[in-house]
Amino acid sequence: MGDFFSNLSLGFGVALSLQNLGLAFLGCLVGTLIGVLPGVGPIATIAMLLPITFGLDPVGALIMLAGIYYGAQYGGSTTAILVNIPGEATSVVTALDGHQMARQGRAGVALGIAAIGSFFAGTVATLVIAALGAPLTGLALVFGPTEYFSLMVMGLVFAVVLARGSILKAIAMILVGVLLSTVGTDLETGEERMTFGLPFLADGIDFAVLAMGIFGIAEIMRNLDHTEHRDVVRQAIGRLLPNKDDFRQSYKPVLRGTFIGAILGILPGNGAVLGPFASYTLEKKLAKDPRRFGRGAIEGVAGPESANNAGAQTSFIPLLTLGIPPNAVMALMVGAMTIHGIIPGPQVMTKNPTLFWGMIASMWVGNLMLLIINLPLVGMWVRLLKVPYRLMFPAILMFCAIGIYSINSLPTDVMFIGLFGFVGYVLIKFGFEPAPMLLGFVLGKLMEENLRRALIISRGSMETFIERPISAGLLAVAAILLVIALLPSIRKGRDEVFTE
Amino acid sequence: MKKVVLALAAVVGLAATGAQAQNYPTRPITMIVPFAAGGPTDVIARIVSDHMSRTLGQQIVIENVAGAGGTTGITRAAQSQPDGYTIMMGHMGTHGAAPALYPNLKYDPTKDFAPIGVAAGTPIVIVARKDFPANDLKGFLDYVKTNGDKVNMAHAGVGSVSHSTGIFFNSVVKVKPTMVAYRGTGPALNDLMGNTVDFMTDQIVNVAPQIQGNNIKAYAIATPERSPVLPNVPTTKEAGLEGYEVSAWNAVFAPKGTPPDVVKKLSDALIKSLEDENTKKRLLDLGGVLPTASERTPEGLQKLVESEVARWTPVLKAAGATAE
Fold this sequence. Notes:
The structure holds 2 protein chains of 2 kinds.
Chain A: H1 2-15, H2 18-35, H3 42-49, H4 58-83, H5 92-103, H6 107-142, H7 145-161, H8 167-181, E1 184-185, E2 192-193, H9 207-225, H10 232-235, H11 244-266, H12 274-286, H13 299-314, H14 316-322, H15 328-339, H16 348-351, H17 353-384, H18 389-408, H19 411-429, H20 434-457, H21 464-467, H22 469-486, H23 488-491
Antiparallel strand pairs in A: 1-2
Chain B: H1 2-15, H2 17-23, E1 29-33, H3 40-56, E2 60-64, H4 71-78, E3 86-91, H5 92-101, E4 113-129, H6 137-147, E5 152-155, H7 161-173, E6 178-181, H8 185-193, E7 199-203, H9 204-212, E8 216-221, E9 247-255, H10 260-275, H11 277-285, H12 298-318
Parallel strand pairs in B: 1-2, 1-3, 5-6
Antiparallel strand pairs in B: 3-9, 4-7, 4-8, 4-9
C-alpha cells in the first residue's frame, strides 16, 4: 500500500509539472474539437496529430496523445448526442437516448451527464489501473479465442433478449449486421468473400462508414422528409446542466457502468465495445419503466458513457503492463511510444517508472481537463443546435464527407455513406432499427474469427467451449438469458433495448 | 481534393518541368505508408522522414493508406504523379511477397517504381510460448518435426510479415504446423503469452519486449549477426538452421518516371538521414538493422527487390498461399 502511494505521488509529480499540465490540456482540447467532427474518431485524430508531438519529450508526448484520445472519445459522444452520428462502436449506444434528449431540448443535460459520468468513471478507472493494473493483466491472457467467442455469443443474446415488439425484426437486423461483417478478405485463407471483385471491399466495410451512413445520413434524410420535425431540436434549449433529479437518476447507472466498462476494457481484441451495450442493457432491465429507454432516458446516457470511458482507460492496462495493444487506438499508442524511443513491454514499469506512473496520473488529470473544457463548451454545442436545419444539414453532410475521407483516404467510403444512408432511411421507414444491426456487425466479425480460431486449435472439437470454465460460464449466462426471454410470462415484460 | 491538387500540379509541372526539378522540393512531400499508423513500417517511415525533411527543406507528410497487405497504398502511390511529391515506404511484403500473394496485383515491384533506397530492416525472430517443451532451436525443430500439425503456429493474417516469414520457415524446415490466423501481431502475441498457440516468427520490434520480459522465449534470430537488443539470442546459423535468414526490410520508392535529379535529391536525403546519429540511434533502439552502403542507393534497392521477388514467389506459391 505504501508503494501504491509513493508510486502515485511520483506519477503526480510528473503529471502536474507545468509543461505536462499544459500538454494534457492542449491534448484534451484539440482532441475534443477534432473528435467532434463526424466520423473522426480517436484513431484518425491521433494519427493526424502524431507529428506535432515529435518535438516533445516522451512523457509529455504520451500525455498529450492520451489527452487527444480521451478528448476525441468524448468529442465523438458529443456528435452522437447532437446530430445522432456515432463516430465509433462505443458511442452508438450514446446516440440512442442522448439524441432523443437533445430533441427534447435536453442536449445540455445529456452532454453534462456524459461529461460528469465520464469523469467519475475515469477517476475510478485510474485508481483501478494504479492499484490493480499488474494483477489484472492476467485476465487478458486467460481470454483465448474460446472464451472470446462465448463472450460474443452472450453479447448477441443481450440484444435479442431485450428486443421488444418485433423480436423477429431485431433478430433479422442482427443477422444482417453479422452478414455485412463477413464481407472482405477471409482471415484464415485469404480468399475474398462477397467483394464482387471490387478492390475497396477487400478489407471489408469500415464500421465508421456503416454507422455514419445508417445513423447520420439516414437521420438527415428523415429530418428532411418530416417537415414538422425539422426544427424540433432547436425549439427549446432548456437547462444546460443536470440538476439534482438528474443526478439522483444517474448515479447508480454511472456506478454500474463504470464497473462493467472497467472489466470489459481489459479484455484483448476490443472487448471494450461490449461495455456500453452491456451497461445499456442492464440499466434498461433494472429500470422501473423500461419504455422510457430510447425516448430520452438519462440513465441510457449516464451508464453507457461511464462504461465507455472506464473501458477506454482500463484498455491501457494490457498496453502499459504487457506492451500488448488490445485495440487499434492502443496499437497507435504503441507506435507513438516507439517513435519516442520507448518500446512498450513489461519492462516499461521498472525501466521507465516516471513514464509509467506519470501516464497513469495524467489519465486522471486528463479527465479533469476534459470536464473543465467540456462543461463550458456544453453551452456552445447546444447553441449550435439553434442554427436552422436548412443551414445545418449541408454542413453536417460536408463534415461527414470530410471526416470519412480522412480515415482511409478512400473516395469510395464517401459514396458508401450515401448508399448506407439510403438503406438506413428505408429501414427506418419499414420499422427496422439500425442499432441491433451495428451490434451484429461489430460482434459478428470477432465472433466468426474467434470461433474458427478456437476450432482450429481444438482440431474441430466443439467441446472446447464447454470444457474451458470461463467459456462454459459465459455460455451458461447466455443460455439462461435466452430461456428467460422465451418464457411467455416474462416475455410480456420484455422491452426493446434499441429504440430509435 | 488531392486529385485536383495533383492535376493542377501536373499542369504546372508540364509548363516548367526543368525549373521544377531543379528547385525541387518547393512544397511538402507526401509519403504514403501502406499500413496503419503505429506499426513497424510506419514508425520507421516517421523516423527516417523526420531527418529527410530537414535536408530537403520541406516537410514530408506521412499518409497512411492501409489495406490488402499494403498493396492498396502502394497501388495508389505507384499511379500518382511522378514528380517527387508523392513517394512511398514499401516493404518486404508489398515489394517482395505481393506478386505471389495477389495474382491481380496492379503493379510490378521490379518495373513500376523509381527506387530511392532501403531505410531499415527489422530482423525476424523465432519465438514460442514460455513453457514450450524445448530449450534451444535444435530441440524446437525436433519437436516441430516430430509433432507435425499438432503444433500451432500463429501469424498476423495472410500477407503479413509473420505469415510470409512463417511459411518460409515451414518450407525451409519442411514442417506443416497448423496455422492460426490473427488480425495483427498484438492479438497473436496475446495468445502466445496466454499459451493458446505454440510459436510464430515475427519482427524483432514486436517481440523483443516480451522476450526481455520473459513472457515468451526466443530460439533464434534470422540474421547473419546477433542483435544488440537481444544479445543472448543466437542467430539461426549459430543455432544450426541453415537457409533461414530473413528480415523485413522497408524502403523508399517513388513512382516510375520520377525525374532523375529528383530521385538523386531524395536518395541523398535518405543517405544523409541514415548517417545522422539520432536517426541511427532511434532505428537501432527498435532492433532495426541499418542497410548496407549499397542498399541505401537506388541501384542497390532495385537489386534487392528483384532478388526478393525471386525468393518469395516460389516459396509462397508452393505453399498455396494467396490473398485473393
